[in-house]
Design goal:
The chain is mainly α and about 110 residues long. The protein contains five helices and no strands. The radius of gyration is 14 Å and the shape is globular. It starts with a helix and ends with a helix.
Length: about 110
Amino acid sequence: MLLNILILASAVSFLFYGISCLLNSGMKEEFYRYGLDKFRKLIGFLQLLGGAGLLVGFAWQPALIIASGGLSLLMLIGFCIRLKMKDGFWESIPSFIFLLLNLYICIQTIGLR
């Protein structure tokens, strides 16, 4: 039950972030600030794909493992970039929390097989 709630929360978050990444001008400025503006659309697409993969994972477990593992990796990279840019704790913590959340989902799902 808790795992399903966490999966749904992560999926909704990444669908929202993916759309924001593609459409929100504030997100465009963030990617420019990090020097990653050429990767913004790719990252937005990967977030949408990951969020959708988490939802598909309710019916097909391999999708859940792939999506949660991929989102964990994406958030690890995001967290490292924020540290490199010397962002503060509060700016960096969301990527770290989503890293841990999706890593937990991945590990728990692998353990269910």
